[in-house]
Write a structure and sequence with these properties.
The complex is a heterodimer of chains A (about 120) and B (about 110). In chain A, the strands form two sheets. In chain A, strands 2, 4, 5, 6, 9, 10 and 11 form a seven-stranded mixed sheet that branches. Chain A has strands at about 5, 10, 20-25, 35-40, 45-55, 60, 70-75, 80-85, 95-100, 105-110, 115-120. Helices cover about 0% and strands about 50% of the residues of chain A. With about 110 residues, chain B is an all-beta fold. In chain B, strand 7 and strand 8 form a beta hairpin. Chain B is globular and about 40 Å long. The chains are: A mainly beta (about 120), B mainly beta (about 110). The interface of A and B includes residues 47, 107, 108 and 112 of A.
């Protein structure tokens, strides 16, 4: 059974960089059948796709965040990571990592999510 | 970006009764391969979303057969033929035809 687990600071100061890591178990991140994704949910709101990465390192970002967002992959650790720079209170959200299939494009496995609060 | 609109946003249902959620997209989600790139997720209270239906009408592994999805093009429907207490939560539809993938606002199903 594939499992994804987010980790990282729960509190980030404004203007700093938010950094999260997703650890994947039960499957290889080097599989060519999946994209590895980040999605966030503002408190009480809907879901917002941030971006995803292929095992080769190819990335796709939401244009609304592209200038601030970097997603990277470490196949040796079976992990992928997110960095969001110059954060503001508007970046306060639950951040999820998820696996997206190449064929049908659905997010079939999700992490439990981690709340990141941006506050001084 | 493709805009996805769900209705209703709140859905109180009596156990044992049916429920239906609509999802409409601003552009057709029908791919040239014949598949509609529309997926449904259920986010139970305090949990992450879980896949219910993929490609508009295919139940994900382990999903009870009381859940069904239908539709094509721009209009899609999720139906629960007999709601159970464990079905409470927020239902999200998502288009996956174009990048960025976009979600509807979510429909909160509650038990009367």
């Amino acid at each position: 059974q594939v499992q994804l687990q987010e980790s990282g600071p729960g509190l980030v100061k404004p203007s700093q960089t938010l950094s999260l890591t997703c650890s994947v178990s039960g499957g290889s991140i080097s599989s060519g059948d999946y994209y590895w994704s980040w999605i966030r949910q503002h408190p009480g709101k809907g879901l917002e796709w941030l971006g995803y990465i292929y095992y080769s390192g190819t990335t796709y970002y939401n244009p609304s965040l592209k200038s601030r967002l970097t997603i990277s992959v470490d196949t040796s650790k079976n992990q992928f990571s997110l960095k969001l720079s110059s954060v503001t209170a508007a970046d306060t959200a639950v951040y999820y990592c998820a696996r997206r299939t190449v064929i049908n494009h659905e997010f079939d496995y999700w992490g439990q999510g981690t709340l990141v609060t941006v506050s001084s | 970006d493709i805009v996805v609109t769900q209705s209703p946003l709140s859905l109180p249902v009596t156990p044992g009764e049916p429920a239906s959620i609509s999802c409409r997209s601003s552009q057709s989600l029908l791919h040239s391969n014949g598949d509609n790139y529309l997926h449904w997720y259920l986010q139970k209270p305090g949990q992450s979303p879980q896949l219910l239906i993929y490609l508009a009408s295919n139940r994900a592994s382990g999903v009870p057969d009381r859940f069904s999805g239908s539709g094509s093009g721009t209009d899609f429907t999720l139906e629960i033929n007999r709601v159970e207490a464990e079905d409470v939560g927020v239902y999200h539809c998502m288009q996956a035809l174009q990048t960025p993938p976009t979600f509807g606002q979510g429909t909160k199903l509650e038990i009367k």
